[in-house]
Each structure stands twice: as structure tokens, then as C-alpha cells.
Amino acid sequence: MSERISEAELAVMEVLWREAPLTALDVAARIDPARDWSDRTIKTMLGRLLAKGVLAHEEEGRRYLYRPLVARSDYVSGESQRLIDRLFGGRAAPLVAWLAENHDLSAADIAELDALVRELKS
Amino acid sequence: MSERISEAELAVMEVLWREAPLTALDVAARIDPARDWSDRTIKTMLGRLLAKGVLAHEEEGRRYLYRPLVARSDYVSGESQRLIDRLFGGRAAPLVAWLAENHDLSAADIAELDALVRELKS
DNA sequence: CACATATGATTACACCTGTAGTCGGAGAGC
DNA sequence: GCTCTCCGACTACAGGTGTAATCATATGTG
Questions:
Q1: How far lies B91's CA from each of A107, A112, B118, in Å?
Q2: Of the candidates A31, A63, A92, B10, which lies 20 to 30 Å from B20 by C-alpha distance?
Q3: Which value, in Å, is the radius of gyration of the alpha carbons in chain B?
């Protein structure tokens, strides 16, 4: 169940993770206008997401209300794990090390990390 | 330049990042046998990777030797950034925090992180 | 030189994705 | 009640991806 969510579909999911349930048009209204999508396109996305089992819909009068079936955190979890598996040998630590080395973390980021590590050690 | 590398293509790139230049058949011999790919399939991948500009080939007698044009670290960089952009608002720190919370880092991982943070702070 | 072989080039084909358009039925207006 | 409209369902279509097969050509072999 719950097949992979494509890039474009993700934009729709993000809307519904932020606020649900919504009708198709409500979703369309909340999609980043920069996408410049037709309502039809969003209907298609909703249909595919339903088919993939990551959304549910219930009738409200003569339209549908859509709501997510998978939590954003689960999705984030899955995608992060995929990246780790594909590029970092399945271990999170090398990714963290890589990020630290390549990402010009701000002082605030480092402080945050420091606090995190301190907590992890306790 | 250098369009996106697909999942299957990545398997080919990984081989060439580990060892290059190689002929098509050498690549095939080094692909994880679990993939169970025909030589044809690997030729196709090589062709597409050439077209995408991420590989180069030079003639060696009547065959080609393939070598990567993009560094693995650049690819890793790009993919990590994509994940961060799509799911973590473009900032690395939240990803690290998320990893720390959800990944049951080992004591060794934590020590490594600790050393990293210590270094970053200095 | 004619033929079997090895290789790269070209072509195939189904499924996914991005991006819609069209069809058909349920209410809303005359 | 007949017609217009709004909405979901179904269909479309090009480009990417996974997974090859076929065609053409250069090469070594007898």
C-alpha cells in the first residue's frame, strides 16, 4: 500500500497536511500560484493520490472532501530513509557528517546541533 | 547541464564512481547481480547517461571506455539538497534534528557527531 | 574472402508523471 | 419539465524510466 508520491503530487499533499479536509477547489486555491496549474490538473492529482491509497475522500453534498491517510512525518521518514539507503550506505551518521561538512551551518544551527548532541549523550 | 540521474542509472554510476574507466561489459560484470539485468539494459543506461552528459566515453579499439563526468560528491550534494528543499524548508539543521530524533543513532554515531560539533564550534 | 561474433546504435513497449480535455449525471434557473 | 452548469470520472498525450530486442557494422577465423 501507499506507493510513492511524485513531486507534483507532493504539492497537493502539502496542502492537505496543512489543512484538511478540503474540497478539490479548496486545494486548488491553496496550491502555490507559481505552479500555475489548471483545476483539472489538481483533480487528476487527487485522483491519483486516492488510487495510491494516501488520500481518502468522503462525500459532502455533491462534492468530495479529501484528507490525508499518511502522516507527513511518515512520508518524511520514508524519503529520508531512501536517501540514506541510496547514498549513505543506510546509515544516518554519514549523512549528518556530510551535511555538517558541506552546508555552512550557521552559528545558530551549530548551537542547535550542540544542544541535540548534549541531549543524546545524556 | 547534467540532468537528473534515475534510480536504475544510479546503479551504473555507482560502479563507475568506484572504478573507471570501464567498458560496458566491465560495468555489467560489476553491477549487483541481484538486479539481474541483461547486458542490453546496461548498454541502454550507459547510452542515456551519455546523453545526459554525466558520462563520457572514449574509444578503446572497437569498444568504448566509460568514465563519470560528475563527481559522486556533487551528485550526493544535489540529492541531499533536493531532499532538504522539498521536506525541510531548505535548511539542513532540521533534517539533522529529525535524524537525531528518529534514527536511534548508536553510541558511536553520537560520539562522531559530538566530535563534529566540537570541531564546528572551534 | 565469407561467415560467425561482438559491439554500439536504433527501436520497442509498458508504466509513471505532468498537464490537461471531454463525458455524463445531479442540482439550479426559467 | 427542459436546459444550463458544476463536479467527479474517464480519456489523452508527450516525455521519462525500466527493461530489453533488433539492426548494422567492424573483427577475428577458417
A1: 13, 13, 21
A2: A92
A3: 19
Q: Which of residues 78-97 of A touch strand C (CB under 7 A)?
A: none
Q: How far apart are the first and last CA of chain A?
A: 38
List CB-based contacts (under 7 A) with strand D: A 23-25, 40, 43-44, 47, 62-64; B 3-4, 6-9, 35-38, 40-41, 43-45, 48, 62
- The answer to whether the CB of A46 falls within 8 A of the CB of A12 is yes
H helical segments located in chain A = 7-18, 24-30, 39-51, 72-87, 92-102, 107-121
Q: How far apart are CA B100 and CA B105, in angstroms?
A: 7
The minimal CB distance from B110 to the residues A103, A106, A117 is found for A117
Check CB contact under 8 Å for B112 and A93.
yes
What pLDDT, in 10s, does the model give residues B46-102?
999 999 999 999 988 888 999 999 999 999 989 999 999 999 998 888 888 888 777
| Closest residue by Cα to residue B86 from A53, A79, A70 | A79
- Name A108's Cβ contacts closer than 8 Å, sequence gap at least 6: B93
CB A76 within 8 A of CB B87: yes
**End-to-end alpha carbon distance in chain B:** 38
Q: From the CA of B59 to the C1' of C7: give the distance in Å.
A: 12
User: With an 8 Å Cβ cutoff, is B6 touching chain A?
Assistant: no
List the nucleotides on chain D closer than 7 A to a protein CB: 7-12, 16-22, 26-27
HSE-CB of A99 using CA atoms within 13 angstroms: 31
